[in-house]
Q: What sequence folds into this?
């Protein structure tokens, strides 16, 4: 095994920032973050690249910084993709067990998963993930690993995430232009959930909400399996734009105001915020109440729309572990309380729980997608990485996550 | 453009209680509008017509409607000369006559062109009087062409704001949009005619709802609860089609109406009224198929619908949609002062104290500006609503 195989890099080209996280695989359970590179994104709007050259430059800068901080050379990355074009649904595949004694083997499992993946999607779409959920043997559900069981019919439920081929290829091409090798891509919401949710959370049922600069990515787990996901192309930029329109400010100033004084909760008393004059512009006073009102309306709408989608899928009552919010907008003041009010569920501001590393990285909600990519990457590694005899010793809980991660492929 | 006679009232369907609908045209444009509608072959049975103007000469040219000259001493019968203050002064002078004119009506339609003198100045006063008499006030106003310059536009906006404070619903018909409806090279008269037809179909839709018996009957209370007290901007769409494919055609025409500005205004609506007129072959399934796309877009709205039957509409279908926004959202910050939405009161009760003072600054339908940094990109459309627009603007919330 060469050195590079133990080093994994997660790259997220976000709407507001591009970041690369370098992780070292200690063993299958433990990943250590050893380097971070981050730069402001150029040429990305609503999670999608609109200017290849500028975005390439951002990636280059972020990777260079990550190389510096981790003291490694980066050739190969795992990347996150998002965008309003990404869709998902659940599908079931089935095969008849043709063996003489009716034992289910690896091959049948492979076949049933292929069968479940054979779905009708629009001709310009391509499947990004086909995440396995449960197996059924002769109609008995909730089976995690059917290999070795006896049965006549094997079925598999999968969650399929697909997107427009050309729009996904923009990201891929952009990374290749840097130049970097792309090992695999993952949808942002899925990557974030791998960083934020523990296996217990997944079992109990949880919703992960990654509110980034341009998009809000969400994914719901019930009984340890992904059962719903989606992308709403509204994010922090929309909050900023609303402020800029409502208070008649230039965008950068609205952005600063949002971060320094903004809250999505009503302020207890109205304060005046005095804008500092620069370049000789006169001071301006702004009502904090107005600012918070604009933000409250927008964020409440975003949360309500996600709630509506999750409700439509019928999973809202099954989210016993609650809602985990991550992404840059998780830092918005008052978000936790507002989200609790909207969802009627416990809301946690998500930290990356499944990985080791400096607190500054783990506690930052904006890194969770890139961190989650490392978890995703471990799942994509070839099998010899975890010899079977050894993985048997692991707790059942970990096996589940391992399996799920392994099942991801293009 | 040939128009099918809408409803030649038959002797056999006398409305159990006669609603009094009155269309008042204020100023030159309003007068023209009345003139055209009243003289049309399908003059609506039981609707009263009144033209109000400062300009005696213009008034004399109108036939087929009652006339009222205002401000005879202020203007000496010569018109307000494009000054809203003179228009308002003229209305104040003859306020008693105007009050008498709006008495005992259930629904008052105001038609006026904003930007000039009489229409801009007098129509808010008339709306206020009508409201005080307990009528439901729907105003159709034409906004000036953009080439008419900034001054007329400002006057129109000020008049519009004041009108909105008094009327239940104000439906704007920007003249610029008329060119989009009739095409660049259409003669001016045709463009204005189409504008008048829009007003006519709006009046007809309400009249139909109230006076015809149909599959689904609507009462005045329902109308009032949907459109009353909104004080916001309204949109309006009317479509007619015949033949086998009429359902689909009507639905398409309704949604493609240039006055709708895409689908966004409908999605933001708080109250929506759908009026359907069809022949005896109209089925409930047809009604459902027409209303469903509207209700899917206008999710937040209180939607009422009526379906009426007319023999002449066999194999034809006419649908009118009126949608209105609240000027002030019901959801307000704890502790902030709310301008109480003026509740429509019964005729007998004391008129609600509507304060004419501060003209309400309500968001005008700005195009392109508010999408800000998302200008060039693909819009985020969620159930017909463009989420790139600021939420507070879409909901019509005043900050």
A:
């Amino acid at each position: 095994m060469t050195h590079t195989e133990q080093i994994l890099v997660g790259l997220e080209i976000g709407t507001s920032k591009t970041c690369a996280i370098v992780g070292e695989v200690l063993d299958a359970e433990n990943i250590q973050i050893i380097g971070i590179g981050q730069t402001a994104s150029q040429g990305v709007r609503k999670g999608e690249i609109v200017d290849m050259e500028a975005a390439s430059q951002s990636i280059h800068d972020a990777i260079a910084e990550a190389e510096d901080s981790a003291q490694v050379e980066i050739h190969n990355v795992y990347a996150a993709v998002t965008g309003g074009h990404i869709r998902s649904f659940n599908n079931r595949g089935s095969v008849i067990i043709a063996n003489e004694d009716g034992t289910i083997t690896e091959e049948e499992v492979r076949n049933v998963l292929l069968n479940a993946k054979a779905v009708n999607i629009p001709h310009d779409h391509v499947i990004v993930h086909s995440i396995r959920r449960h197996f059924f043997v002769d109609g008995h559900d909730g089976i995690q690993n059917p290999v070795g069981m006896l049965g006549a019919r094997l079925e598999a439920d999968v969650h399929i995430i697909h997107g427009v081929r050309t729009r996904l290829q923009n990201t891929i091409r952009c990374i290749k232009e840097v130049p970097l090798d792309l090992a695999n891509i993952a949808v942002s919401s899925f990557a974030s959930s791998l960083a934020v949710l523990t296996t217990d959370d997944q079992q109990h049922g949880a919703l992960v909400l990654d509110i980034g600069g341009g998009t809000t990515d969400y994914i719901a787990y019930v009984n340890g399996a992904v059962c719903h996901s989606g992308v709403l192309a509204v994010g922090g930029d929309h909050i900023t734009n609303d402020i800029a329109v409502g208070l008649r400010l230039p965008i950068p100033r609205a952005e600063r105001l949002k971060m320094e004084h903004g809250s999505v909760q009503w302020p207890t008393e109205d304060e005046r915020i005095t804008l500092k004059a620069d370049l000789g512009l006169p001071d301006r006073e702004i009502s904090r109440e107005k600012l918070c009102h604009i933000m409250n309306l927008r964020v409440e709408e975003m949360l309500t729309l996600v709630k509506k989608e999750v409700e439509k899928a019928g999973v809202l009552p099954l989210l016993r572990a609650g809602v985990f919010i991550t992404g840059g907008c998780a830092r918005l003041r008052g978000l936790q309380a507002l989200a609790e009010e909207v969802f009627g569920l416990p809301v946690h501001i998500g930290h990356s729980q499944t990985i080791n590393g400096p607190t500054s990285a783990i506690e930052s909600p904006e890194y969770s997608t890139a961190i989650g990519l490392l978890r995703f990457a471990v799942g994509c590694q070839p099998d010899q990485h975890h010899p079977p005899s050894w993985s048997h010793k692991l707790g059942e809980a970990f096996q589940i996550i391992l399996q799920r991660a392994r099942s991801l492929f293009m | 453009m040939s128009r099918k006679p809408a409803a030649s009232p038959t002797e056999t369907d006398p409305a159990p209680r006669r609603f009094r609908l009155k269309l008042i045209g204020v100023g030159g444009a309003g007068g023209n509008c009345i003139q055209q509608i009243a003289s049309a072959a399908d003059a609506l049975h039981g609707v009263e017509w009144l033209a109000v103007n400062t300009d005696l000469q213009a008034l004399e040219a109108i036939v087929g409607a009652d006339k009222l000259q205002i401000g005879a001493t202020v203007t000496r019968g010569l018109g307000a000369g494009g000054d809203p203050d003179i228009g308002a002064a003229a209305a104040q002078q003859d306020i008693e006559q105007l009050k008498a004119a709006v008495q005992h009506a259930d629904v008052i339609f105001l038609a006026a062109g904003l930007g000039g003198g009489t229409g801009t100045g007098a129509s808010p006063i008339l709306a206020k009087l009508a409201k005080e008499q307990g009528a439901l006030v729907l105003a159709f106003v034409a906004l000036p062409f953009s080439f008419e310059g900034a001054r007329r536009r400002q006057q129109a906006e000020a008049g519009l704001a004041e009108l909105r404070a008094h009327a239940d619903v104000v439906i704007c018909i920007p003249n610029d949009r008329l060119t989009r409806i009739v095409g660049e090279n259409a003669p001016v008269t045709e463009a204005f005619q189409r504008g008048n037809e829009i007003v006519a179909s709006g009046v007809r839709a309400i009249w139909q709802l109230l006076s015809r018996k149909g599959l689904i009957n609507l009462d005045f209370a329902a109308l009032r609860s949907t459109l009353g007290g909104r004080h916001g901007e309204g949109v309006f769409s009317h479509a007619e089609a015949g033949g086998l494919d009429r359902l689909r055609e009507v639905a398409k025409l309704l949604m493609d109406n240039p006055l709708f500005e895409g689908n966004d205004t409908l999605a933001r609506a708080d109250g929506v009224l759908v009026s359907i007129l069809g022949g005896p072959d109209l089925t409930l399934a047809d009604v459902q198929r027409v209303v469903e796309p509207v209700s899917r877009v206008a999710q937040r709205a209180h939607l009422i619908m009526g379906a009426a039957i007319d023999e002449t509409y066999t194999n034809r279908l006419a649908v009118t949609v009126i949608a209105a926004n609240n000027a002030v959202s019901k959801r307000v910050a704890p502790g902030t002062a709310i301008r109480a939405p003026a509740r429509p009161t019964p005729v007998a009760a004391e008129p609600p104290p509507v304060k004419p003072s501060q003209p309400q600054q309500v968001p005008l339908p700005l195009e392109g500006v508010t999408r800000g940094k998302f200008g060039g990109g693909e819009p985020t459309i969620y159930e017909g609503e463009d989420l790139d627009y600021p939420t507070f603007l879409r909901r019509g919330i005043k900050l």
